[in-house]
Amino acid sequence: MTDTAGPTDTPTDPGAGTDAAGVLRPPAEQAFADELAALERLDDRPRPPKWRLSPWAVTTYLLGGTLSDGTVVTPKYVGARRLVEVAVASLATDRALLLLGVPGTAKTWVGEHLAAAVSGSSRLVVQGTAGTAEESIRYGWNYARLLADGPSRDALVPSPVMRAMQAGRLVRVEELTRIPADVQDALITILSEKTLPVPELDTEVQAVQGFNVIATANNRDKGVNDLSSALKRRFTTVVLPLPATLSEEADIVRRRVASLGAALRLPADLEHLAEVERVVTVFRELRSGVTADQRTSLKSPSATLSTAEAISVMTNGLALAAHFGDGRVGADDVAAGLVSAVVKDPVQDRIVWQEYLETVVKDRREWSDLYRACRDLDPA
Amino acid sequence: MTVHVLGVRHHGPGSARSVVLALEEVRPATLVVEGPPELDAVVPLLADAATVPPVAGLVYDVAAPRRSLFYPLADFSPEWVAIRWALSRGVPVRFADLAGRHLLAPEPATGDTDDEAAGRLPFGEAEEPGTTAPDQSADGPEAPGSEESPDGSGAPEVADADVRQDVVAVLARTAGYADPERWWEDAVEQRHADVLARFAHLRDAIAAVRAADPALSDAHNDRREASMRTVLRDVLDAGDVAVVCGAFHAPALDPRGFPSAAADARLLRGLPRTKVAATWVPWTSARLAASSGYGAGVEAPGWYRHLFETWSTGDALPDPRARDHDVASSWLVRVARALREEGLPAPPASVVDAVRLAESLAAVRGRPAVGLDELTDATRGVLTEGADLPLAVVHRRLVVGEEIGEVPAATPMVPLAADLAARQRSLRLKPTATSSTTTLDLRTDNGRARSVLLHRLRALGVPWGTPADDTRTLGTFKEVWELEWQPELAVAVVDASRYGATVLDATEARVAERAREAEGLAELGRLVETCLVADLPVALGAVVDTLAEATAHQHDLRVLLETVEPLARTVRYGDVRRTDSGRVGALLTTVLARARVGLRAGCQALDDDLATRTRIALESAHRGVALLADPQRSEPWFRALAGLVADGSVHGTVDGRAVRLLHDAGRVDTGDVAARMSRRLSLAGDPADGAAWLESFLGGEAVLLHDHALLEVVDGWVSGIGDDVFADLLPVLRRTFSGFGVAERRRIGAQLAGASRTGETVREVDDDRALPAVLAVARMLGLEVAS
Fold first, then answer.
1. Lower CB density within 10 Å: C or N end of chain B?
2. Looking at the predicted structure, is the pLDDT value of residue B469 above 80?
């Protein structure tokens, strides 16, 4: 991977989007419109039907690189190239893609960027919840019309899935395992037959080429509504791992914090994001149950301690420093976020955290400011 | 009179396919294959229908069989394919390389380490020259040729030996290919329809590589190539010659560039030599894999075999794309079948999807065709639902493979190996490459015979089987063995053949030798057991003689004590094996008597370490005596123990254990023990000694739970120790009590806390709380209740 992009050139002035002024977070296809346009212009490889880019260009868009005209594509996903290649190849074979991983492993992020790069739009989304009904996967009815005119095509309210089928685009299903099992099963016909029958009208909606589904699921939630094997079989499963090394993870956090900070109009204090390393180290050590030097074993708290949480701790710290401090993120600014990220269970996790503070943080001389900041918060 | 040099990649299926096509075209009068000329004598055996690859040519030093060389051949190896082609057409086959008699000769010069020795081997595997440790278990000849750069990232930094070993892989890597076979197909096969032109171009490429860096060839390589040329000159007169050799040597074997015969002869003059023998031995796929440490190994023998087989059947397909599709789909079908056997669904519809995913993945990656990487990723994504664990099965069973080769019965074998093969046949114990578990019932003749054979082989240093449950070697009629035949066991057999011509004779001689070399009674005691389980009457006599003699010279109490248990087991369970244990019984009586007599004297003035050793020896001897269940032997033993504990000056560790043993046997009552304990633990005594006594006494089952009197003594002692001393003793006490289970500790703690110290009676009754219950019972009994 030719990762030439430093944290500073992450392109994210949100005001840049034409119709996105004031939007908190523009969708991927707007935030990275320049890169997508450049890729589209330079991409001379064969594209699957209805794809905006060739599979190779999609891979480049996600993993970053420098194009032949010098355009720098920032990496969207930092991790194994193999995983992205499998994901893109799967979409190219019209087989649905299931991104599995613990919270904060960039499942949604990858899904969004894949949809943006392949279909040019990441906005067809079904957010899976325990209350997701069949209408949001199949179709609903406009009851006023239904009563007035009887069943007709016009009275049909298409779901994002149906619209994607008609337009030949990618649709994302977030948190698939949170959707009740009987609703999940509505996807089976769509995925295998590529049609959506509408028995009330004695008709069906047939998927146009280019249609596909990207689903995300959390493998910590396994068992919430585990996928039936019939459904699972129709997905290519790609497990997104937690970042393998400290520097990789710190890099991800730094990159995302910088871009979020820019979106929130926080003065990006990138030189002093040194706290990132410490926060990520704390997270990694507690997650793996052993210190970085492999000398001391630790208890793991019940919290997942994902990279996403490290990002939110850092963003929080950045906001604190910007509004109440001197603009430099220091130990005081991250301590509160750190404690609240780790201590999810007030009894169990508190013990874990205290032990960690006393046995690990205290002994690291250069961490004494962090130790003091954490003690001040919780003098117990 | 032309020489067609077919430079190949060892174990490369692509090379193998090209070699066959080339041979069909050339139709040589003689085939020359890279390999030691000693193998010439046994080459006709490869034509035998009973020869099943993978097999390996074995060349070993007759005087020291551990110095040996292997030349593995798989069914997809170009050498194998060429030899089979020649043998089936009556074309003579000659091996050409530096002879094994020179390669294996002990190096007169110093400084030539074994590592170098492996680097200069052709494509064979060097066996480490054996050390002199007689019972060293042959756990695998780790071919020292593992200096291969781990990831091959820095192509210019590859060692010279690697270039010589696999120059094709180096060329492929330089061209940006991860898989050399892929490169071979794209760069060599697809480019040139004329098969001979393929080899000619490859030879030119390598000639350029060698010309660019003359340092690639060293003196040793020069000698090897001189030997090859010598053979070539020899066969040139008979007509056209085809040479199958490692691609690196191809430029040196072109007759146009031959140096003079005299120059080559000069190179080969005066090499050290030794007497060697050559044969074929079965080989396994796992040993072909590079991961097993074999220098010229391949990453994925199973995958290469698959490629070779699919290619040879798919040659009919004119379209290379159809052929590639066939490779991918048939591989994934095999993967799915393997996964199904492991209980995963892997339905055919998913296989179809996996094939499509693999092909689209190859397109995304810009590869010309689907490779193993793509197939593995597709398997993970579609067939195993993202899980890595089932992939391990695929790797073991398919990517590496579980094949084990076979050699025909006529293969020259050392007599011992022939005897072993005959026994394996008659007992229906077939060597397998995978580890399998066998349970033997010693009550049946066959079960006993199998057990004896396995025990003998173990004693002989051929660890084909290892007991799965080592704790009960004698006391049961059931034996569980883990069986796994490693190819290097063939060497171990050859090595062991110096002891005798049959398994029985060799084992007898080997055990007798070990008995003579044994350093101590304990080892001899174990050898006695070995003799029994391996049914070695002659060796048993020798071992018992040595043992009796060693006993007479032995004065150390601990050694005598340690000898008791193995001997007792022999006497006790000898019957199960139907062996005569009369002499062992007599010996045991002697050992026991001597141990008894020396017991008290031997336990005087011990330091802590020696005391601990004595305690362990005492326990083992006690187990031995208990096993015998013979009052004639146990009575004097208990008397001796009683004498020991009567002596107040014995180290606490030993004394505590002896008291405990007597207590458990009911030889001293609790009152007596409490008195002893209290004496040992009294404040006037040395607290450290007291703690040692306590640790020793309490070890094992929690006696304190059942005996309140003892518990009170302990409690009283602990409460009475001064603070300073207590701090010193705390570690010992903690250690003692940590030996108990959590539940036992909790109950001891509860008893000490007073909850039930006095048994089940309740001392104080809360009248108010008890009243309702009492009234209810009274009403039930029909008593009149005053409200």
1. C
2. no
